[in-house]
């Protein structure tokens, strides 16, 4: 096993010139195996190791995990850095999910550790993390099912650059989970088990616990290994396509302002092969926006701007990516959206609270609603489908009281669950006529003593949804919708304000 991993490290150029490696160690089998292999290679390769353990404070067992990592590092004579971070507080502060916040906190801790280890200017060590072959297969499936591009399907790469410029390496990426656990048992080494890995609370867990075992059992033995191999092939394919894309972009480019604006010739873009055309548009959105949550549906919608019948002045806004694209005669202009200016609003009442929605699939807890799930789906407008196909799609819009679909690209600010504020309003008809939230609540006879604590889904001061009552018509999903945001609350949500509501009547049967 050790020689296999060393061979992979050499093939992928993972060994640092100064020998410094900061190793992420959670206490699970993967990270314990990684640390053990590097310890075995330490003297032979002249490695300088330091382990990093991050206690997220999310599980009761976290104290025992930390104690176990301390014990291992002491036995193997590996310096250890332990950082304790309240991930829940960090997630709330940044308005993101706990999983995303925890990942960011871990990598920041790894980078701080490596920064202390690297004392020689011009030489950088590596950050070693324990992603393995099964992780690569799961990531491949996860991205494939969500409709990602080549880079997404390539998924986890053996080496990538960290924010500080250091390299993040994954020495176990050709090694399977079963191999890792068998090796540790053979060496008489134990590990800690995270109970949440066996719970189907995250999409990745469902892939790991249901989809891959089914594929291995019912379709093809070794399916996980085959998927990981395909991901590696797609990684090389993606690198080649990226090179061709950059060359194609230069051929179409009329003007650029790095990070802010790119202007393409429509006629030049249309001369490129259709596949390369898609990649060029995607590259433009990545360069001008944040690259966050960019989907195939976004790229497809932007491509429509190059069609012969597209009128000058047509504009596509992608707030999730902080990017926009506009047709201006024989040009397509890609720009970065300005960050929204802070609004001056009245302070919330003493009962006020906020829960910002993450920009990816997640589950969050909302006062008065309990567990709320957020999902992002491809809409008919991002597929170039015919009108009949769009009509069929729209028939499937959920009519449930506590599951609603919204056109994500019509959102202009951060989406948040909160209580009411002065100036709140919603659109109430097909002409998008506005009605103040106060007047709406009075018209619905919502008791005055409950209005301050009623949970609302808001985009700035525009109320997207009053759960249990109605949605704003401004965010309605149509045949042109590229990305759908689905919000689903527990059906047992109940309050005196909504128990007698006949939402279908209020909503006119429309979402």
- The global form is globular
Cα(first) to Cα(last) distance is 56 Å
Give the helix level as a range of percent.
25-40%
Alpha carbon gyration radius: 26 Å
How many beta strands in the DSSP annotation? Answer: 22
Q: What is the percentage of strand-forming residues?
A: 15-25%
Give start-end ranges of low-pLDDT stretches. Answer: 341-350, 383-388, 491-511
What structural category characterises the helix and strand content?
A: alpha+beta
Question: Could you give the order of strands across the largest sheet?
Answer: 3-2-1-4-6-5
SS element count, helices: 17
Major sheet attributes: 6 strands, mixed
Structural overview:
The protein is α+β, with helices and mostly antiparallel strands and 511 residues long. Helix content is 39%, strand content 20%. It has helices at residues 2-11, 29-45, 62-75, 87-94, 98-117, 133-146, 150-154, 177-187, 203-219, 223-252, 266-271, 274-288, 296-303, 387-394, 437-443, 448-451, 503-507, and strands spanning 20-24, 48-55, 80-84, 126-128, 159-161, 167-169, 253-257, 261-265, 315-318, 323-328, 331-336, 354-356, 362-366, 370-378, 403-407, 415-418, 425-427, 434-436, 456-459, 462-466, 470-471, 483-489. It has a six-stranded mixed β-sheet, with helices on both faces. A hairpin with a 5-residue loop joins strand 5 (159-161) and strand 6 (167-169).
């Amino acid at each position: 096993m050790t020689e296999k991993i060393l061979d992979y490290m050499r093939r992928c150029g993972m060994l640092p010139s100064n020998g410094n490696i900061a190793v992420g160690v959670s206490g699970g089998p993967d990270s314990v195996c990684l640390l053990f292999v590097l310890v075995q290679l330490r003297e032979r390769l002249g490695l300088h190791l330091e382990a990093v353990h991050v206690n997220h404070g999310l599980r009761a067992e976290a104290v025992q995990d930390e104690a176990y990592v301390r014990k291992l590092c002491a036995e193997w004579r590996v310096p250890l850095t332990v950082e304790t971070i309240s991930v829940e507080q960090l997630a709330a502060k940044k308005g993101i999910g706990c999983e995303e916040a925890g990942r960011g906190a871990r990598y920041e801790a790894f980078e701080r550790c490596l920064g202390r280890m690297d004392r020689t200017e011009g030489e950088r060590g590596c950050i070693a993390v324990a992603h393995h072959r099964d992780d690569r297969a799961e990531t491949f499936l996860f991205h494939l099912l969500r409709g990602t591009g080549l880079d997404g399907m390539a998924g986890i790469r053996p080496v990538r650059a960290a924010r500080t410029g250091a390299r993040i390496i994954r020495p176990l990426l050709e090694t399977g989970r079963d191999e890792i656990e068998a090796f540790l048992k053979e060496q008489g080494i134990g590990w800690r088990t995270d109970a949440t890995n066996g719970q189907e609370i995250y999409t990745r867990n469902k892939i790991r616990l249901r989809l891959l075992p089914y594929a291995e059992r019912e379709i093809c033995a070794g399916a996980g290994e085959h998927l990981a191999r395909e991901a590696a092939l797609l990684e090389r394919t993606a690198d080649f396509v990226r090179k061709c894309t950059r060359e194609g972009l230069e051929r179409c480019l009329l003007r650029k302002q790095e990070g802010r604006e790119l202007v393409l010739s429509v006629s030049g873009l249309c001369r490129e092969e259709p596949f390369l055309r898609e990649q060029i548009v995607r590259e433009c959105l990545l360069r001008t926006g944040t690259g966050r949550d960019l989907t195939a549906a976004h790229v497809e919608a932007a491509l429509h701007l190059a069609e012969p019948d597209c009128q000058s002045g047509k504009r596509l806004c992608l707030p999730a990516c902080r990017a926009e694209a506009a047709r201006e005669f024989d040009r397509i202009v890609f720009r970065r959206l300005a960050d929204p200016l802070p609004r001056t609003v009245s302070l919330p009442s003493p009962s006020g609270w906020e829960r910002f929605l993450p920009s990816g699939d997640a589950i969050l807890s909302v006062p008065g609603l309990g567990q709320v799930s957020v999902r992002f789906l491809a809409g008919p407008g991002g597929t170039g489908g015919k009108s009949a196909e769009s009509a069929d799609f729209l028939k499937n819009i959920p009519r449930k009281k506590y599951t609603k679909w919204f056109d994500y690209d019509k959102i202009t600010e951060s989406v948040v669950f909160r209580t009411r504020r002065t100036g709140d309003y919603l659109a109430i008809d097909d002409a998008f006529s506005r009605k103040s939230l106060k007047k709406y609540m009075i018209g619905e006879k919502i008791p005055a003593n409950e209005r301050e604590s009623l949970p609302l889904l808001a985009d700035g001061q525009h109320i997207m949804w009053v759960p249990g009552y109605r949605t704003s018509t401004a965010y309605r999903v149509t045949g042109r919708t590229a990305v759908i945001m689905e919000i689903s609350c527990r059906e047992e949500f109940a309050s005196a304000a909504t128990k007698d509501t006949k939402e279908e009547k209020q909503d006119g049967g429309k979402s």
